[in-house]
């Protein structure tokens, strides 16, 4: 059970980030301004808030995930010329950083664009393929035209297959995440996005 939970957390982190020369400050598909906050619902009772707590000079944003007033996860994300990358999770470096959304000229790449993922996260090795698409999505925060990233891969160390979908919306960011590990699905849906001041 602990392995499944660890794999789920690592997989979500790779899906829900780097040199200063390549860094852009942000993209409208994942606005990383200090103070920006996303409130998500998982199931009927679990509520999580993801908040940009810091943005470094090179553009790397630190995002804290808070549940019941306690920080339960921290990650680092950076926007580069060719995509949005996750570079750290829970104090563990992701090597190389994982591309979570492919970009071209600050906009998502064309539908059908694919990219390979192979990274070390702590003692785990993640391997898989991501593919970009587009579709409408409805969540508690509203109905949107979204960019969708489908991930199909596995935690090679633990031998756990993982599939995931992440929906990105301009000027809002991630509005929905669906992840399946060992046949168990977890879905996070956006309730509200609060811009930083």
Write structural notes for this entry.
With 197 residues, the protein is mainly β. It has one domain (2-194): YmcC-like fold (Beta Barrel). The protein contains one helix and 14 strands. It has a twelve-stranded antiparallel β-barrel with strand order 2-3-4-5-6-7-9-10-11-12-13-14. Strand 11 (142-155) and strand 12 form a beta hairpin. The longest helix is centred in the first third of the chain and has 14 residues, at 2-15. Residues 1-23 form the signal peptide. Keywords: Signal. This is Lipid/polyisoprenoid-binding YceI-like domain-containing protein.
* Integer tally of domains: 1
The number of helical segments is 1
- Helix proportion range: under 10%
Average pLDDT over all residues: 87
Question: Gap between N and C termini, in Å?
Answer: 41 Å
Largest sheet: 12 strands, antiparallel, barrel
Order of helices and strands: HEEEEEEEEEEEEEE
Number of strands: 14
Q: What structural category arises from helix and sheet content?
A: mainly beta
Molecular shape: globular
Low-confidence stretches: 1-24
Alpha carbon gyration radius: 15 Å
- In CATH's first tier, which class applies? Mainly Beta
State the CATH topology: YmcC-like fold
> If strands are numbered along the chain, what order do they take across the biggest sheet?
2-3-4-5-6-7-9-10-11-12-13-14
Give the name of the CATH architecture.
Beta Barrel
Strand fraction equals over 45%
């Amino acid at each position: 059970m602990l392995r499944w939970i660890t794999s789920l957390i690592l997989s979500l982190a790779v899906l829900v980030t780097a040199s200063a020369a390549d860094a852009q400050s942000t993209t409208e598909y994942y606005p990383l301004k200090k103070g920006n906050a996303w409130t998500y619902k998982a199931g009927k009772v679990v509520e999580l808030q993801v908040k940009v707590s810091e943005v470094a000079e090179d553009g790397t944003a630190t995002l804290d995930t808070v549940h019941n007033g306690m920080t339960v996860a921290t990650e680092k994300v950076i926007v580069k010329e060719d995509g949005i990358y996750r570079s750290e999770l829970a104090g563990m470096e992701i090597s190389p950083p994982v591309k979570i959304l492919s970009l071209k000229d600050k906009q998502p790449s064309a539908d059908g664009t694919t990219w390979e993922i192979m990274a070390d996260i702590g003692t785990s090795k993640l391997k898989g393929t991501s593919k970009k698409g587009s579709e409408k999505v409805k969540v508690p925060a509203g109905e949107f035209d979204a960019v969708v990233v489908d991930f199909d891969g596995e935690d090679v160390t633990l031998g756990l297959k993982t599939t995931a979908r992440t929906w990105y919306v301009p000027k809002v960011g991630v509005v929905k995440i669906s992840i399946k590990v060992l046949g168990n699905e977890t879905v996070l849906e956006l309730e509200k996005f609060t811009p930083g001041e």
